[in-house]
Amino acid sequence: MLRDNSGRGRALQSVGMRSLVLIGHGSHLNGESAVAVYRYAELIRQRGLFDEVIEGYWKEEPSLRQVLKTTASTDVTVIPMFISEGYFTETVIPREMGLGHQGPVPPEGVARVIGGRTVRYTLPYGVHPSMTDVILERAREVLPDASPHDTALIVLGHGTTRNENSNKVVYQNADRIRESGQFAEVQALFLDEDPKVGTWPETVRSPRVVVVPFFASEGWHTLETIPEDMGLTGTVTDFPENPHGHQQVFYAKPVGTHAAVADVILHLAEEASGAGGQGGDTERGHEAAWQAFLKGARAGLRIGEALVTPELGVFELRHALDEGRPGADLTTLVTPEGVRDQVRFTDGGEHRPVHTLRNLPRGWRAVLSEADLRRAMHYLYPAVIEETYAHACHALRPTPWATTARRQTGIYAKVQKATPEQVEHVVEDICTGCLRTRLWAGQRLTHSFLDGVPGGIPCAEACTFIVAEVREEVSGKRGGGGHSHSH
To answer: Which residues are in the DR2241 stabilising domain (predicted)?
Structure first.
């Protein structure tokens, strides 16, 4: 099985500074979507092989458009946290991150210099050959005595008609395991393309059948769709009257949630184009932004809805409306991750994909060192400090709505047809509840929180939440006065 190679760790660490960025899909609606990426970031952070591990998302913050600004190093490796190659890894991520690349990514990845940073973009972790070991680990967990005499393995993929590459990795893993001779038969089946998972009783003959979902995370498909399509009632299900006689199905957990995926990610980072170099330096603009913030924090600072107060060598962070409330009345947090998990949901329990909406939950305080304050602020208001400082230096270039709309593809291409009135309707509904000033819509911001104006935060480009809602508006699916939950 995959194991960490500590010698490799020393080699990675002994040279300049390195940033690792893990890219997830995220969701505007479901707060659980981002959890797997957070978990892997934490596992890799604990190894200490990179100076920092940052998460970025298509539908959460920091967004794909912002995430590179949040890296402290000029040496950045970007790994898409996807199970297979496809539309997101070949089109959306490279486009939104400005990689100047479209289409299949070569095995060694793509390397570009973007804004003074060397950025390496790799294949998604799911296509790495060592994922075969992860499938076998999952199979052994659910059936330790699986044997080539009486046990079949089904590697179950999502499948899609949109990208022919997405099923390739499922077939490759099935082929590798079949050649190893560890199972009586090995089948690749799919949810959304042939051969479909519902056909398994006809195609699989063995009395014992292990099903391993080749999915990135536990979710609707692994918990609802697959069990329904296969007639499963739990981890082990008996089928006494199948076409090939009595069969028992053992349903494993998805490969993407296995801890060994952290090793796969590190293998990918190691093998990325040009990764053996000397590492990078501190990115000067990024460091200057944080020093400007810390200077304010040491004197006491309000930023958005949050209050930062210096206290005996540490910092206290809390909701500004909780100013003066005794600490005993508040939940005390002591880690950046504690802050992250606290601020991801509103007081009413709703997911907050846009962190500058005026719905920061109350009732907590965080007590943090200076280093932890930086990471906590990154989770509280992702990319806000970097973008605000860049704006103060006249280095933040706004992207008008028309340019954002023109860039969209796939299901979002229809936003190009949106009328100014339709865009304005969405903006009135969402942006009026946001702290940011819409530079992309021609608004001006003369003072920021760095000058003592708490709500002074620039917005250089319409976020993906706006893009998604404009699509709903054009499709006629949005109700008045609130956003729909159908995307």
So the answer is: 286-391
Confidence of residue 480 (pLDDT cuts 50, 70, 90): low
**472, 363 contact by CB (below 8 A):** no
Q: Does residue 114 contact residue 158 with C-beta atoms inside 8 Å?
A: no
**The pLDDT value given to residue 277:** 67
Residue 394 CA from chain centroid, whole number: 30
Q: If we measure between CA atoms, which residue out of 122, 74, 114 comes closest to residue 98?
A: 114
The whole-angstrom separation of Cα 467 and Cα 406 is 11
With 0-12 / 13-18 / 19 or more C-beta atoms within 10 angstroms meaning exposed / middle / buried, residue 248 is middle
Q: Which residues pair with 151 in a beta bridge?
A: 208
Cα–Cα dist 297/310, whole Å: 7
Q: How many CB atoms lie within 10 A of CB 46?
A: 10
Q: What is the DSSP code (8-state) at residue 90?
A: I
Whether 281 contacts 275, CB under 8 Å: no
Angle at 259 between CA 214 and CA 184, to 5 degrees: 45
Tokens 């093998």 correspond to what residue?
271
Spatial separation of the C-alpha atoms in residues 335 and 53, rounded to whole Å = 16
Q: What is the per-residue DSSP string for 301-332? A: EEETTEEEEEETTEEEEEEGGGTT--GGGSEE
- Residue 151, sorted as left (phi over 0), alpha (psi -120 to 50) or beta, turns out to be beta
In 300-352, where does DSSP find H-type helix?
Answer: 336-343
| 367: Cβ contacts below 8 Å, ≥ 6 apart | 311, 314, 315, 316, 332, 333, 334
**Distance between CA atoms of residues 92 and 130, nearest Å:** 25
Q: Identify the pLDDT of residue 479.
A: 66
Alpha-carbon distance values, 197 to 158, 229, 238, 345 (Å): 10, 7, 17, 36
> Residue 50: what residue type?
F
**Is there a contact between 68 and 363 (Cβ–Cβ < 8 Å)?**
no
CA 161 to chain centre: 24
Burial of 288 per CB tally in 10 Å (0-12, 13-18, 19+) = middle
Asked if 18 and 51 touch (Cβ cutoff 8 Å), the reply is yes
d(CA 119, CA 93): 13
Q: How far apart are CA 98 and CA 91, in angstroms?
A: 11
User: Is 102 strand, coil or helix?
Assistant: coil
Name the pTM for this structure.
0.90
Among 251, 264, 305, CA closest to 129: 264
**Which positions ≥6 away from 279 have C-beta within 8 Å?**
15, 16, 17, 18, 73, 75
Longest dimension (CA), the chain: 75
pLDDT score recorded for residue 438 = 98
